[in-house]
Amino acid sequence: MPLYMSLIMSTEAQSVFAMRQGARPSLRSDFSWMFAGNAIYASGQFATLMLLAKLLRPELVGQYALGLAIVYPVSNLTNLQLRAIMTSGTRQQIHFGHYLSLRLLTTSLALVIIFAITQFLGYPWELTAVVLMVGMAYAIESISDVYYARLQLNDRMAEISKSLIARALLSVLGLAVATYVSGNLLWGVAGIVLARVIVLFGYDICERTHGLGAQSKWCSRNEALTPRLDLAMERELLWVSLPLGIVVLLAALNSSIPSYFIKHALGERDLGMFAAIGFAASVGNMAVVSLGQSAFTRLARSYAIGNLVAFGSLLSKLLAFGAMIGLSGMTISKLAGREILTILFRPEYADRADLLPWIMAVGGVVYMAQFLGFGLTAAGFYNSQVVLNIFSNLSLLVACYWLVARQGLLGVIFAMLIAAIVQLAASIIILVAAMRTHTHKSAEGVELARRHIGLNLFHGNGKAMRGD
Q1: Whole-prediction pTM value?
Q2: What is the pLDDT of residues 245-289, one digit of tens each?
Q3: Which of the two ends of the chain, N or C, has the fewest CB atoms closer than 10 A to its terminal CB?
Q4: 306 φψ region: left (φ > 0), alpha (ψ -120 to 50), beta (else)
């Protein structure tokens, strides 16, 4: 999966690691399970792209990448971040069945929207079928995700990890077997769909997985795990969760815009080449997300108590780490990029090894922007990030329109670099202005406190002189 898709994966990773406070004594074990689950799941995403590049033509890899680019924004919008809302505990009175019912409704709507997009763009039926099959794969994953929320709410993180591992391994196996036997992308993606269906019905919705029974059943009839439709309740949930869905949609669009321009300006072959080569920059993304999550509590605490020196110092170290990953990737790409692409994919991909250092440069800027995103969230600047995403999308849209047709894939990378720099610079401006305001308010508070103490001392001395 390329760099611009890895940013969406980070959202998944953040929700997975958002464990409840007051966890059970097995927290260390659960964390180990989750780390292993996410690592294997990410490896499965890479193995999927690598297998497609090894077994199919770049044009077909491009069709798969286009399917992801269409499905991701729609899926992220219609998922409405229900998992985050459910695990936040702010609406504990709402039954799990209501969340599940809303997820089933919005997932069905997502498939309709995806089909409508393919028809509006006039895609041939072969490409439409691939896009819809990718949509089906992520529809199944969306349903599993809401069951993950219930598991997470009950501190059963190991079960989530086991599901992620099973889904990753079976998906890769299903894709490999189906693609190798048929030589057809559609059947390969169908293998992924089948694997995810098996995990969903064979594990995710089982009573035993949720600690509600001793036996595993393919279809649970336990009321705690079944849909519960209530239009008034679904409307309330929709109203609460829609803003979160829009925020994630903006991030997803930022990752998908390059694919749209490559498909319509350069063709599916170039899209396939770019998707495979672009994955190299996503290697550092898990390290960035993990480190950002580890530092988040310290950042939030430092900002809350007004210790801006500690806040700025830690954020500067994170930015330096992000830049270091990007520079290291550029160096490695320059020295051994062709060999790496030949081993991972095929020699024809190595012909565009010239793109790899530039992609890693984009990765370095994106890593730093991600760390600043953690800083903005820790400081409580949520609305500002929506504005940032809008400006980033607009800059990417304009840059792609201007550069892709003129400079090809290199133009795409330059457009992504421009958008990343815009987001990075805007984040710096917002944080610096916020820290100055915070410092000014703190100074005013200290001055008021001094005046108050001075007045008290003055009145006290006056009373003493009068003998009161």
Answers
A1: 0.75
A2: 887 888 788 888 998 899 888 888 888 888 888 876 777 776 777
A3: C
A4: left
3-state SS class at 92: coil
Instruction: Give the 3-state secondary structure of residue 219.
Output: coil
pLDDT value of residue 113: 95
Q: How many C-beta atoms surround the C-beta of residue 369 within 10 A?
A: 25
Task: Assess contact for 192 and 179: CB atoms under 8 A.
Answer: no
pLDDT at 88: 60
Query: What are the boundaries of each domain within the chain?
Result: 1-265, 266-468
Q: Closest Cα partner for 329 from 286, 352, 363? A: 363
The pair of three-digit structure tokens given for residue 314, joined into one six-digit string = 């830690």
**Tokens matching residue 356:** 């790899």
The set of residues, in sequence order, having a beta carbon less than 8 Å from that of 233 and lying 6+ positions away, is: 94, 98
CB atoms within 10 A of CB 172: 22
55 vs 214, residue with greater confidence: 55
- Of 69, 43, 48, nearest to 286 by C-alpha is 43
Give me 392's structure tokens: 């980033």
Q: What is the Rg, in whole angstroms, of the alpha carbon atoms belonging to the chain?
A: 25
pLDDT given for residue 6 in this prediction: 44
**Residue 35 CB burial class (10 angstroms; 0-12, 13-18, ≥19):** middle
CA distance 414 to 433: 28
Contacts of residue 128, defined as CB under 8 A and 6 or more positions apart, other chains included, come to 115, 118, 119
Give the confidence band of 64 by pLDDT, cuts at 50, 70, 90.
very high
Cβ neighbours, 10 Å, residue 318: 23
Angle made by CA atoms 94, 142, 118, in degrees to the nearest 5: 130
Mean pLDDT of 46-59: 88
DSSP notation for 404-456: HHHHHHHHHHHHHHHHHHHHHHHHHHHHHHHHHHHHHHHHHHHHHHHHHHHHH
207 confidence band (pLDDT: 50, 70, 90): confident
